[in-house]
Amino acid sequence: MIEINGNDLVFSFQSVHHCARLNISFQRTLRIPDDDRTYPLPPGLGSFPLVHVDDFEENVPESWMKHGGIILPMYQSEAMWIHFNGHFELGRPSAYPFAIKICTGKINAVTGEEYKSGLKKNPQDYVVSPKQPWLDGYCIKKGEIRQFVAMPLGEGYTAEEQITGEAEHGGLQITVYPMKGSRYDALFPKSEMNMMSDRSLSTGSWGAMPAMCMAPPSGGGYETAQVEEMGLAPGGKMKQEIYNDDFKIDDWDLENGSRCFVHITNSTTWAEITGNLPPHLPPSAKDYTYAGLPWFDYYDADSKAIKGSAKLSKLESVQKMSAAKGEPISNDSFSTQELVIPLKKNPKQVREGDF
Predict the structure, then answer these.
(1) pLDDT tens per residue across span 258-293
(2) What is the pTM of this model?
(3) N or C: which end of the chain has fewer CB within 10 A?
(4) How far is Cα 324 from Cα 16, in angstroms, rounded to an integer?
Protein backbone atom coordinates (compact mmCIF):
# COMPACT_ATOMS: atom_id res chain seq x y z
CA MET A 1 0.00 0.00 0.00
CA ILE A 2 1.19 3.54 -0.82
CA GLU A 3 -0.08 6.61 1.05
CA ILE A 4 0.72 10.27 1.54
CA ASN A 5 1.32 11.14 5.20
CA GLY A 6 1.98 14.86 5.52
CA ASN A 7 4.67 15.40 2.90
CA ASP A 8 5.98 11.84 3.07
CA LEU A 9 5.33 9.09 0.56
CA VAL A 10 4.76 5.96 2.66
CA PHE A 11 5.19 2.40 1.38
CA SER A 12 3.68 -0.24 3.69
CA PHE A 13 3.95 -4.02 3.39
CA GLN A 14 1.99 -5.31 6.38
CA SER A 15 1.53 -8.74 4.78
CA VAL A 16 5.34 -9.08 4.74
CA HIS A 17 6.10 -7.84 8.28
CA HIS A 18 4.52 -5.43 10.74
CA CYS A 19 7.71 -3.32 10.62
CA ALA A 20 7.89 -3.17 6.81
CA ARG A 21 7.16 0.51 6.32
CA LEU A 22 9.28 3.06 4.44
CA ASN A 23 8.83 6.84 4.41
CA ILE A 24 10.29 8.73 1.46
CA SER A 25 10.47 12.53 1.39
CA PHE A 26 11.61 14.79 -1.42
CA GLN A 27 13.76 17.51 0.08
CA ARG A 28 14.15 21.02 -1.29
CA THR A 29 17.80 22.00 -1.32
CA LEU A 30 20.44 24.33 -2.74
CA ARG A 31 21.49 23.94 -6.36
CA ILE A 32 25.25 23.56 -6.21
CA PRO A 33 27.50 25.19 -8.83
CA ASP A 34 28.59 23.23 -11.88
CA ASP A 35 32.22 24.32 -12.01
CA ASP A 36 34.12 20.99 -12.06
CA ARG A 37 34.49 21.13 -8.27
CA THR A 38 32.96 18.45 -6.05
CA TYR A 39 30.82 19.94 -3.29
CA PRO A 40 29.76 18.52 0.10
CA LEU A 41 26.15 17.64 0.91
CA PRO A 42 23.78 20.63 0.88
CA PRO A 43 21.07 20.89 3.56
CA GLY A 44 17.42 19.95 3.39
CA LEU A 45 15.25 23.08 3.22
CA GLY A 46 12.00 21.27 3.95
CA SER A 47 9.93 18.76 2.02
CA PHE A 48 8.20 19.40 -1.28
CA PRO A 49 4.41 19.27 -0.88
CA LEU A 50 2.73 16.17 -2.32
CA VAL A 51 -0.80 15.57 -3.64
CA HIS A 52 -2.61 12.59 -5.15
CA VAL A 53 -2.85 12.83 -8.93
CA ASP A 54 -6.33 11.26 -8.70
CA ASP A 55 -7.60 14.30 -6.78
CA PHE A 56 -7.01 16.57 -9.80
CA GLU A 57 -8.24 14.53 -12.74
CA GLU A 58 -9.73 17.53 -14.56
CA ASN A 59 -6.53 19.58 -14.29
CA VAL A 60 -3.78 17.20 -15.40
CA PRO A 61 -2.86 15.42 -18.64
CA GLU A 62 -4.59 12.14 -19.38
CA SER A 63 -1.23 10.34 -19.28
CA TRP A 64 -0.81 11.36 -15.63
CA MET A 65 -4.10 9.68 -14.76
CA LYS A 66 -2.93 6.55 -16.54
CA HIS A 67 0.27 6.47 -14.50
CA GLY A 68 -1.41 7.32 -11.19
CA GLY A 69 0.88 8.30 -8.33
CA ILE A 70 1.50 11.76 -6.90
CA ILE A 71 2.40 15.31 -7.97
CA LEU A 72 5.02 17.70 -6.56
CA PRO A 73 6.07 21.22 -7.65
CA MET A 74 9.60 22.35 -8.56
CA TYR A 75 10.88 25.62 -9.94
CA GLN A 76 12.94 25.45 -13.12
CA SER A 77 16.57 24.61 -12.22
CA GLU A 78 15.60 23.86 -8.60
CA ALA A 79 17.40 20.92 -6.97
CA MET A 80 16.17 18.08 -4.76
CA TRP A 81 17.43 15.15 -2.74
CA ILE A 82 15.50 12.07 -1.69
CA HIS A 83 15.41 10.94 1.93
CA PHE A 84 14.72 7.31 2.93
CA ASN A 85 13.44 6.57 6.43
CA GLY A 86 12.54 2.98 7.27
CA HIS A 87 10.40 2.03 10.27
CA PHE A 88 12.44 1.45 13.41
CA GLU A 89 11.09 -0.87 16.09
CA LEU A 90 12.34 -0.31 19.62
CA GLY A 91 14.94 -2.92 20.49
CA ARG A 92 15.92 -3.82 16.93
CA PRO A 93 19.52 -3.20 15.75
CA SER A 94 18.33 -1.86 12.38
CA ALA A 95 15.43 -0.12 10.73
CA TYR A 96 13.57 -2.37 8.32
CA PRO A 97 15.67 -2.81 5.12
CA PHE A 98 14.39 -1.96 1.65
CA ALA A 99 15.84 -2.17 -1.85
CA ILE A 100 14.83 0.99 -3.72
CA LYS A 101 15.08 1.69 -7.44
CA ILE A 102 15.07 5.37 -8.40
CA CYS A 103 14.47 6.28 -12.03
CA THR A 104 14.01 9.67 -13.67
CA GLY A 105 12.10 9.56 -16.93
CA LYS A 106 12.44 5.77 -16.58
CA ILE A 107 16.26 6.06 -16.61
CA ASN A 108 17.92 4.40 -13.62
CA ALA A 109 19.75 7.01 -11.51
CA VAL A 110 22.39 4.46 -10.43
CA THR A 111 23.20 2.67 -13.70
CA GLY A 112 21.85 4.91 -16.48
CA GLU A 113 19.93 1.96 -17.93
CA GLU A 114 16.27 2.08 -18.93
CA TYR A 115 13.77 0.93 -16.31
CA LYS A 116 13.34 -2.79 -15.68
CA SER A 117 11.41 -4.47 -12.89
CA GLY A 118 13.20 -6.64 -10.35
CA LEU A 119 16.67 -6.15 -8.91
CA LYS A 120 20.03 -6.47 -10.61
CA LYS A 121 23.10 -7.14 -8.48
CA ASN A 122 25.92 -6.75 -11.01
CA PRO A 123 25.97 -3.89 -11.65
CA GLN A 124 23.77 -2.95 -8.71
CA ASP A 125 20.80 -0.92 -9.96
CA TYR A 126 19.24 0.09 -6.62
CA VAL A 127 20.05 1.58 -3.23
CA VAL A 128 19.51 -0.07 0.15
CA SER A 129 17.87 1.66 3.11
CA PRO A 130 18.83 2.21 5.92
CA LYS A 131 22.47 1.97 4.81
CA GLN A 132 21.73 4.59 2.12
CA PRO A 133 19.99 7.41 4.03
CA TRP A 134 19.54 9.62 0.96
CA LEU A 135 20.18 10.04 -2.74
CA ASP A 136 21.03 13.42 -4.23
CA GLY A 137 21.59 12.64 -7.90
CA TYR A 138 22.99 10.49 -10.67
CA CYS A 139 25.86 8.15 -9.76
CA ILE A 140 28.60 9.14 -12.23
CA LYS A 141 31.57 7.50 -10.50
CA LYS A 142 32.54 5.95 -7.19
CA GLY A 143 31.92 8.50 -4.45
CA GLU A 144 30.48 11.16 -6.75
CA ILE A 145 27.06 12.10 -8.10
CA ARG A 146 25.56 14.86 -10.25
CA GLN A 147 22.74 16.64 -8.47
CA PHE A 148 19.07 16.18 -9.44
CA VAL A 149 17.92 19.44 -11.07
CA ALA A 150 14.42 20.09 -12.44
CA MET A 151 14.11 21.21 -16.07
CA PRO A 152 11.18 21.41 -18.50
CA LEU A 153 10.53 18.23 -20.41
CA GLY A 154 11.12 18.60 -24.13
CA GLU A 155 14.09 20.99 -24.12
CA GLY A 156 16.78 18.30 -24.16
CA TYR A 157 18.18 18.76 -20.66
CA THR A 158 16.86 15.71 -18.82
CA ALA A 159 18.74 12.44 -18.39
CA GLU A 160 15.85 10.73 -20.20
CA GLU A 161 16.20 12.95 -23.30
CA GLN A 162 19.98 12.78 -23.37
CA ILE A 163 20.02 8.97 -23.21
CA THR A 164 16.92 8.01 -25.23
CA GLY A 165 16.44 11.07 -27.43
CA GLU A 166 12.79 11.19 -26.34
CA ALA A 167 10.80 13.32 -23.89
CA GLU A 168 8.17 10.74 -23.08
CA HIS A 169 7.96 10.13 -19.34
CA GLY A 170 9.52 12.84 -17.17
CA GLY A 171 9.11 12.81 -13.39
CA LEU A 172 10.39 10.13 -11.04
CA GLN A 173 9.62 6.43 -10.89
CA ILE A 174 10.19 4.69 -7.56
CA THR A 175 10.07 0.93 -6.98
CA VAL A 176 10.41 -0.45 -3.45
CA TYR A 177 11.09 -4.06 -2.43
CA PRO A 178 10.97 -4.99 1.27
CA MET A 179 13.24 -7.54 2.86
CA LYS A 180 11.48 -10.85 3.47
CA GLY A 181 9.93 -10.84 6.93
CA SER A 182 11.59 -14.09 7.97
CA ARG A 183 15.02 -12.78 6.96
CA TYR A 184 14.52 -9.54 8.91
CA ASP A 185 13.65 -11.46 12.07
CA ALA A 186 16.63 -13.77 11.57
CA LEU A 187 19.17 -11.04 10.77
CA PHE A 188 17.92 -8.35 13.15
CA PRO A 189 16.46 -9.86 16.32
CA LYS A 190 15.59 -7.38 19.03
CA SER A 191 18.70 -5.83 20.60
CA GLU A 192 20.08 -2.33 21.13
CA MET A 193 19.14 0.44 18.71
CA ASN A 194 21.29 1.97 16.01
CA MET A 195 19.64 5.08 14.58
CA MET A 196 20.74 6.77 11.35
CA SER A 197 21.82 10.40 11.08
CA ASP A 198 19.54 12.88 9.37
CA ARG A 199 20.79 16.08 7.85
CA SER A 200 17.24 17.29 7.25
CA LEU A 201 16.91 17.78 11.01
CA SER A 202 20.00 19.99 11.19
CA THR A 203 19.16 22.80 8.81
CA GLY A 204 18.36 25.64 11.13
CA SER A 205 15.56 27.99 10.09
CA TRP A 206 15.68 27.40 6.33
CA GLY A 207 12.73 24.98 6.31
CA ALA A 208 10.22 25.32 3.48
CA MET A 209 7.17 27.48 4.07
CA PRO A 210 3.92 25.51 4.18
CA ALA A 211 1.70 25.71 1.12
CA MET A 212 -0.90 28.47 1.49
CA CYS A 213 -4.52 27.78 0.66
CA MET A 214 -6.16 29.48 -2.31
CA ALA A 215 -9.57 29.21 -3.88
CA PRO A 216 -9.82 26.26 -6.28
CA PRO A 217 -9.45 27.04 -9.98
CA SER A 218 -12.70 28.45 -11.34
CA GLY A 219 -14.75 26.54 -13.89
CA GLY A 220 -13.60 23.11 -12.71
CA GLY A 221 -9.97 23.49 -13.76
CA TYR A 222 -8.08 24.75 -16.82
CA GLU A 223 -6.81 23.42 -20.10
CA THR A 224 -4.51 20.49 -19.39
CA ALA A 225 -2.12 21.63 -22.14
CA GLN A 226 -1.02 24.42 -19.79
CA VAL A 227 0.58 21.94 -17.38
CA GLU A 228 4.35 22.23 -17.70
CA GLU A 229 5.75 18.76 -17.21
CA MET A 230 9.20 18.61 -15.64
CA GLY A 231 11.97 16.05 -15.66
CA LEU A 232 15.25 15.75 -13.79
CA ALA A 233 18.59 16.65 -15.31
CA PRO A 234 22.20 16.39 -14.03
CA GLY A 235 23.57 19.40 -12.19
CA GLY A 236 26.80 20.07 -10.29
CA LYS A 237 29.07 17.42 -8.80
CA MET A 238 28.67 16.31 -5.20
CA LYS A 239 30.53 13.98 -2.89
CA GLN A 240 28.25 11.01 -2.20
CA GLU A 241 28.76 7.26 -2.06
CA ILE A 242 26.18 4.76 -3.24
CA TYR A 243 26.68 1.80 -0.94
CA ASN A 244 26.97 -1.82 -1.98
CA ASP A 245 24.15 -4.21 -1.05
CA ASP A 246 25.61 -6.66 1.49
CA PHE A 247 22.46 -8.79 1.46
CA LYS A 248 21.64 -11.58 -0.98
CA ILE A 249 19.13 -11.07 -3.78
CA ASP A 250 17.10 -13.86 -2.21
CA ASP A 251 16.74 -11.76 0.97
CA TRP A 252 14.50 -9.33 -0.92
CA ASP A 253 10.80 -10.03 -1.35
CA LEU A 254 10.50 -9.56 -5.10
CA GLU A 255 6.92 -10.84 -5.04
CA ASN A 256 5.76 -7.88 -2.97
CA GLY A 257 7.32 -4.85 -4.66
CA SER A 258 5.43 -1.57 -4.98
CA ARG A 259 5.76 1.22 -7.58
CA CYS A 260 4.90 4.93 -7.60
CA PHE A 261 5.07 7.51 -10.39
CA VAL A 262 6.05 10.96 -9.10
CA HIS A 263 4.87 13.63 -11.55
CA ILE A 264 6.73 16.94 -11.40
CA THR A 265 5.08 20.17 -12.48
CA ASN A 266 6.55 23.65 -12.64
CA SER A 267 5.83 25.54 -9.42
CA THR A 268 4.23 28.35 -11.45
CA THR A 269 1.43 25.98 -12.55
CA TRP A 270 1.06 24.21 -9.20
CA ALA A 271 -1.53 26.75 -8.04
CA GLU A 272 -3.62 26.24 -11.17
CA ILE A 273 -3.61 22.47 -10.68
CA THR A 274 -4.14 22.25 -6.93
CA GLY A 275 -5.46 25.62 -5.75
CA ASN A 276 -2.46 25.93 -3.41
CA LEU A 277 0.42 28.36 -3.60
CA PRO A 278 3.81 26.76 -4.30
CA PRO A 279 6.66 26.91 -1.77
CA HIS A 280 8.79 30.06 -1.70
CA LEU A 281 11.78 30.34 -4.01
CA PRO A 282 14.83 28.60 -2.49
CA PRO A 283 17.90 30.69 -1.58
CA SER A 284 20.92 30.50 -3.83
CA ALA A 285 23.76 28.29 -2.64
CA LYS A 286 26.06 31.33 -2.60
CA ASP A 287 23.73 33.41 -0.40
CA TYR A 288 23.23 30.45 1.96
CA THR A 289 26.98 29.96 2.33
CA TYR A 290 27.74 33.65 2.79
CA ALA A 291 25.23 33.64 5.66
CA GLY A 292 27.53 31.15 7.41
CA LEU A 293 25.07 28.25 7.34
CA PRO A 294 26.32 24.65 7.30
CA TRP A 295 27.00 22.02 4.64
CA PHE A 296 27.45 18.34 5.52
CA ASP A 297 29.72 15.35 5.03
CA TYR A 298 28.54 11.76 5.53
CA TYR A 299 30.82 8.74 5.36
CA ASP A 300 30.21 5.16 6.43
CA ALA A 301 33.60 3.55 6.92
CA ASP A 302 31.98 0.13 7.35
CA SER A 303 30.35 0.15 3.92
CA LYS A 304 31.75 -0.26 0.42
CA ALA A 305 30.72 2.14 -2.33
CA ILE A 306 29.73 0.88 -5.77
CA LYS A 307 31.24 2.11 -9.01
CA GLY A 308 29.51 4.85 -10.93
CA SER A 309 27.83 4.55 -14.31
CA ALA A 310 29.88 5.22 -17.44
CA LYS A 311 26.64 6.07 -19.24
CA LEU A 312 25.59 8.64 -16.62
CA SER A 313 29.09 10.15 -16.51
CA LYS A 314 28.68 11.19 -20.16
CA LEU A 315 25.57 13.29 -19.53
CA GLU A 316 25.85 17.02 -20.09
CA SER A 317 25.01 19.19 -17.09
CA VAL A 318 22.25 21.81 -17.04
CA GLN A 319 24.79 24.62 -16.80
CA LYS A 320 26.87 23.40 -19.74
CA MET A 321 23.83 22.83 -21.93
CA SER A 322 22.23 26.15 -21.06
CA ALA A 323 25.47 27.98 -21.91
CA ALA A 324 25.59 26.19 -25.27
CA LYS A 325 22.01 27.29 -25.96
CA GLY A 326 22.97 30.92 -25.26
CA GLU A 327 20.73 31.03 -22.19
CA PRO A 328 23.15 30.37 -19.32
CA ILE A 329 21.65 29.57 -15.92
CA SER A 330 23.97 31.31 -13.47
CA ASN A 331 25.13 29.70 -10.23
CA ASP A 332 28.30 31.27 -8.85
CA SER A 333 31.16 29.27 -7.33
CA PHE A 334 32.12 29.67 -3.66
CA SER A 335 34.05 27.95 -0.88
CA THR A 336 32.40 25.72 1.74
CA GLN A 337 35.61 24.56 3.40
CA GLU A 338 34.99 26.09 6.83
CA LEU A 339 31.27 25.29 6.95
CA VAL A 340 31.20 21.50 6.55
CA ILE A 341 29.75 19.48 9.44
CA PRO A 342 30.54 15.73 9.56
CA LEU A 343 27.47 13.56 10.12
CA LYS A 344 28.03 10.55 12.33
CA LYS A 345 26.49 7.17 11.62
CA ASN A 346 25.15 6.98 15.19
CA PRO A 347 24.42 10.53 16.40
CA LYS A 348 22.44 9.27 19.42
CA GLN A 349 25.48 7.71 21.08
CA VAL A 350 26.82 9.69 24.04
CA ARG A 351 30.60 9.78 24.59
CA GLU A 352 31.82 8.31 27.87
CA GLY A 353 32.87 10.92 30.44
CA ASP A 354 36.40 11.22 31.80
CA PHE A 355 36.35 11.98 35.56
Answers:
(1) 999 999 999 889 999 999 998 988 877 777 777 676
(2) 0.84
(3) C
(4) 51
